[in-house]
Write a structure and sequence with these properties.
The chain is an alpha/beta fold. 40% of the residues lie in helices and 20% in strands. The protein has a ten-stranded mixed β-sheet with strand order 3-2-1-4-5-10-9-6-7-8, sandwiched between helices. Helix 1 (21-34) packs across helix 2 and helix 3 packs parallel to helix 5 (129-135).
Amino acid sequence: MSDAGEHEEIVVGIDPARDWRLPLAWAVDEAGRRRLRLRLVVAVPPQHDTHHVDDTPRSIALHQAASDALGTAAAWSRERDPEVESAVEVLEGFPAPEIGRLSRRARMIVLGSRHLSRTSEFLSAGSLVVPVSAQAQCPVVVVGDAEHVTQQPPYLVVGIDGSESSKAALALAFEEADLRRARLRAVSVWEPPLLLHHDEEAALQGQRRMMSETTAGWSQEYPDVVLTHEVLTGHPVEELAGAAEHALAVVVGRRGKGGYTGMRLGSVVHGLLHRAHCPVITVPVR
């Protein structure tokens, strides 16, 4: 890709072995809203050392399957929205690092999800969701379930915890809500400690103050977006997933407060990727 196309594309990972229509539909619609191009990609990993056994036929078959899937996906994309331009590319290498590399120039990366358990996700050779979400330099959208477009009025959920990461998520959430003419529900979750040394009401007041300070000013920038904010009590993953049960998407920062140094993907994000029943948008701090 040339410098002229920097941040003007949405990259979509196409899995030839599984149904890619749900994530591709999301990406096509988003590209239409944002007037961006699509780049549909399949990564073909290098073959294992077969001790001099000729693996050429298998390699050719994999590349052919990748090309066939990309051609079919591109045609399907044009049918959904003829005005959205798309390009296709077969990447040579392991899927997660190759697609992650494209994030340096992409506006977004869109992936499908198989709703694997955490153990299965880590052990799956073709797993993309966790490593790409953890290391991408642009927002990553994981589409495991369809948007709840029948919900009226439509809304998005954004998780707020006062971290720089959640502030980046809030910025994208407002942008998305404005593009979709949807409401925005900002949610902060207070998880009571096992041993409560402070007054619970004081802790909740602190959360509400943080929420007000974090969201201040955004309604002036996006006057058409109806914003509500609330503080919930419970486990962050469960509460955010519940709040987003009928949402268009849930938007979260990649790493919130309380994560260990060196962690690239917060535990709340990791949990939502397996628990939420709507698209999950993970936003890094730029």
